[in-house]
Sequence to fold (374 residues):
Amino acid sequence: MSGRQVDRGRLADVVLAAVVGALGTAVAAFDDGTTALDHALVALASAALAFHRAAPRAVLAVATVLGTAYVVHAHPGPLSALPVLGAVHTAARVGHRGVAAAGGAVFLAGYVATGPGTQHVAERAGLLAGWFLCAVVTGLADRNWQAYLRQTEQRALEAERTREEAALRRAGEERLRIARELHDSLTHSISIVKLQAGVAVHLARKRGEEVPPALLAIQEASGEAMRELRSALQVLRADEPAGTPALLVERARAAGLTVDLTVTGDERPLPRAVDLAAYRIVQEALTNAARHAGPAKVRVRIDYGTGNTGGPVGELAIDVDDDGAADPDRPPVPGTGLTGMRERVGALGGTLSAAPRAEGGFAVRARLPLVEAV
Fold:
């Protein structure tokens, strides 16, 4: 929160206290027998409202004690409950509904006990009870609304944070797809052209014939095309991760996700393909947890081939579990992220399991052989 927002909040609190104090003092001035002590009690009870953000329960206690002392001493009308009503509302607004209801009950008890036992007093007490109930209900409604706004803002920030990662992931997948297409089509065709041109040149020279310039140009051009195509494929396949799984965990924590990371085994440099796949699997699992798990706790476990996670020795094991809202009876429809994970793991000869857990939440289990993909 910025300094300007804090100053505005304090100003609003002071204005609230001043308005309630002015109303309470004006009402007290029209009651017969109001003394300087009564005015002081009203003023102090109202002034306490200026600190309701810092100490809502303490403000409620002060307002209740001073307000009750005022009604016991002066027997005023229902408007004397304004400071206590404000304190009850602000306490309920931050979640202290039990304390708020207790404060209202104490004030009502003092109001009824000190007044004459007439129907008029009973009607006033009923009116005040309704006011206090409304104060508690509106405080809870405001609290829920503020929580909704905070959740909406957090989701917007999370969407903004993951949008770039999703765009980079889709761009990388598209580059790999193009690289595969180029490799499967152009590379094969150009290789055949180069091979045939080389055979023709070799046969012409073997027979002592002059090699046609066009044939030499084809051989040279096909070789140059192969070199350029290999360079282009290397660029398209350059999909290095921008960090490590530990860095992904730190980013997720900074975004508000509760994540625990456990690493077992000899942490060491991995084959490039395995390292990239591990990074993308953890990235996608954390992204899905942030989007779909709700306020959950996530556990990331990476085992460098010790077999502690149930897999064989010599196999990288990645487990990402959350205790979120996933339901085993309603498995999710695999999207681009889960499909991409399966393709990466399958290309390396590994296995992947991504499904809701029986005890609730979602689990991702990836097993990757610690060998270079052929």
Notes: The chain is about 65% helix and 10% strand. Residues 198 and 219 are 6 Å apart (CA to CA).
